[in-house]
């Protein structure tokens, strides 16, 4: 599990691509597809969590991370947007990850994830802005407008930012389990 926690999100990406929730502009990628996803998109699921774990470690080193609690707003959004596949599944996935974490996780890991998420949004919005056409003539990733809420940060669907959260929560949780188990041995 240590090396492969990103497989859940890769599967999510494969399904979203198969259902045409998002598509990729052939002009901008190598043309190598695996499971219907460009190779570059598969690398996203590996490199982004590693970069965000680095952000978490830096934050943890320089300051104590406070405890933060969450409410169930994601469940309500997921239900309210049940006809938009991307919005509903991203919100329900995030709510499920948080719910799972309330039962099995540690509050300090959730708190670290919330703070890391906030800081990670800065590079995430820059890179995702590039991918969604904020700085290019055409977007690299195209979204099916019928499958998301229509709420965007510039060219970036808000769902992309919501999607980042469970990706971080799972990766930080698995990382901390193995780091603390390794240091205890």
The assigned structural class equals mainly alpha
Query: Within the largest sheet, what's the order of strands?
Result: 1-4
Average pLDDT level? 83
Largest sheet: 2 strands, antiparallel
* Number of helices, counting only DSSP H or I runs of 4 residues or more: 6
Strand content: 5-15%
Rg for CA atoms: 17 Å
Number of strands: 6
Instruction: Please give the oligomerization state of what you see.
Output: single chain
How far apart the termini lie comes to: 18 Å
Gross morphology: globular
Unreliable spans are none
Helical content band: 55-70%
Tell me what the structure shows.
- The structure is a single chain.
- Helix content is 63%, strand content 8%.
- The protein is mainly alpha-helical and 185 residues long.
- Strands 1-4 form a two-stranded antiparallel sheet. It has a two-stranded antiparallel ribbon with strand order 2-3. Strands 5-6 form a two-stranded antiparallel ribbon.
- It is globular and about 50 Å long.
- The model has no long low-confidence stretch (mean pLDDT 83).
List keywords for this structure.
6 strands, two-stranded antiparallel ribbon, mainly alpha
Give a nutshell description of this structure.
This protein is 63% helix and 8% strand.
